[in-house]
């Protein structure tokens, strides 16, 4: 044992999606557990679904070296949301990565796409039928609606 606290038990994840302007959204995830308190944030241009800016912040971390991962967030700028999963895998999994950051970015990716399209439905800019057709390739329930 290294004497460092091992993360176990309850892990609290929080996701927030906010519209900044008509064409800019802000999405953030936060993880709090026994060892971590960290946030990932992404600014997204819509309707193009392109990441404008991304950041990673550690408020509490198990190892001081965890902060070294934060600089990799700039490599997300300019990519499309649909490519975030693959890019996140390449940047944040493996020897020089952080699986928690990868998980949190994928919460943003999946959650934002649903939240954004639901906001379009609520604003009358998309119908529920259009949404259901779009989601058939991404959701088993919507596929079953065919």
Description:
This protein has 146 residues and is of the alpha+beta class. It has one domain (12-144). The protein is built from four helices and four strands, in the order ββββαααα. Strands 1-2-3-4 form a four-stranded antiparallel sheet, with helices on one face. Helix 1 runs antiparallel to helix 2 (99-122). The longest helix has 24 residues, at 99-122. The protein is globular. The N and C termini lie far apart (54 Å). The model has no long low-confidence stretch (mean pLDDT 89).
Q: Layout of SSEs?
A:
Blueprint: E1 12-21, E2 24-32, E3 37-45, E4 50-60, H1 84-92, H2 99-122, H3 128-135, H4 140-144
Antiparallel strand pairs: 1-2, 2-3, 3-4
Helix pairs in contact: 1-2
Average of the residue pLDDT scores: 89
- Total domain count: 1
Proportion of beta-strand residues: 25-35%
Could you spell the SSE succession in H and E letters? EEEEHHHH
Tell me the major beta sheet. 4 strands, antiparallel
| Terminal-residue CA separation | 54 Å
Task: Please supply descriptive tags for the structure shown above.
146 residues, alpha+beta, globular
Structure summarized in a few sentences:
With 146 residues, this protein is an alpha+beta fold. It has four helices and four strands; from the N terminus they run ββββαααα.
């Amino acid at each position: 044992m290294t004497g460092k606290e091992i993360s176990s038990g309850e892990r609290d994840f929080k996701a927030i999606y906010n519209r900044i302007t008509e064409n800019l959204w802000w999405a953030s995830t936060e993880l709090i557990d026994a060892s971590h308190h960290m946030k990932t944030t992404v600014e997204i241009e819509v309707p193009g679904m392109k990441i404008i800016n991304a950041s990673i912040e550690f408020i509490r971390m198990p190892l001081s070296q965890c902060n070294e991962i934060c600089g990799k967030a700039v490599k997300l700028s300019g990519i499309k949301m649909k490519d975030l999963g693959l890019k996140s895998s390449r940047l944040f999994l493996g020897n020089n990565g952080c699986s928690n950051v990868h998980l949190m970015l994928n919460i943003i990716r999946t959650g934002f796409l649903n939240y954004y399209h639901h906001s379009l439905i609520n604003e009358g800019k998309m119908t529920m039928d259009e949404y259901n057709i779009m989601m058939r390739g991404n959701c088993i329930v919507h596929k079953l609606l065919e």
